[in-house]
TrEMBL record:
It comes from the Eukaryota. This is Ureidoglycolate hydrolase. GO terms for biological process: allantoin catabolic process; purine nucleobase metabolic process. InterPro entries: RmlC_Cupin_sf, Ureidogly_lyase, Ureidoglycolate_lyase_dom_sf. SUPFAM superfamilies: RmlC-like cupins. Homodimer. It comes from Dreissena polymorpha.
Length: 226
């Protein structure tokens, strides 16, 4: 458990245990600006699929990989199933926090830049992302409020310029494909509740941009200019 965040209930950090308390340290220089686009069926191609009915959407489960030349026996390797639960998001002062009830995960997912007020959240500083090789993950907003998703296409040789922020208007949810780099979502409002489900194995592969590249990501929280 972390205790470094003033005025924040102690949260377990994201899967890689990155610490956002030093986000304003000048040693990182200027954060890397992430572009933002509107989330549409077209722009989301390759990243995942739009979800309009949470109950009818099945989690995409990846069959267990084989290590040799012999194939999996049909119908095996994908029976881990799925788990579901609410995903709760809340801005607490300058920090964005998230609670994933499906996997009992408590996260601090970002911090506001020094020149951004909690009353006018235009950007968030982020240093970590992860992907799930075992399956997809579904997010569905209960109140149809806008949110931002930070995503990158598959590949362990991830670069800062691979990240894209998607602005969702709240009229639909989203299922990310397996292997898609992502963070928990960023609500535009003070707090938000999402219905969530994902593969029960919950394998996680993590990148920490502050450690690997010496940079934080600067993620926009406002819609792209037309």
């Amino acid at each position: 458990m972390i205790t470094k965040y003033p005025d924040v209930t102690p949260f377990r950090i994201m899967s890689g245990y990155a610490d956002h308390s030093d986000a304003l340290d000048p040693k990182y220089g200027d954060p890397f600006p992430v572009p933002i686009v509107m989330a549409t069926e077209e722009t989301l191609k390759g990243y995942g699929t739009i979800v309009t009915n949470f109950d009818e959407t099945k989690v995409e489960i990846t069959p267990w990989p084989v290590k040799g030349w012999r194939p999996l026996f049909p119908g095996t390797g994908d029976r881990g199933g799925e788990i579901s639960g609410e995903f709760l998001y809340k801005w607490t002062g300058e920090y964005c926090t998230a609670l994933n009830k499906a996997v009992d995960g408590d996260y601090v997912t970002g911090r506001l830049p020094g020149n951004v007020s909690p009353n006018n959240r235009s950007h968030v500083l982020v240093r970590e992302a992860n992907y799930h090789p075992d399956g997809g993950q579904v997010f569905f907003p209960t109140k149809k409020e806008p949110f931002v998703a930070l995503l990158a296409l598959p590949g362990d040789d991830i670069k800062l310029e691979d990240f894209v922020a998607f602005y969702f208007d709240g009229s639909f949810g989203f299922q990310i494909h397996a292997d898609i780099w992502h963070q928990p979502l960023y609500p535009v409002s003070d707090e938000a509740v999402f219905l969530g489900k994902q593969g029960a194995v919950h394998a996680c592969v993590v990148v920490d941009t502050a450690k690997e590249f010496g940079k934080y990501l600067l993620v926009p929280l406002t819609p792209p200019e037309k």
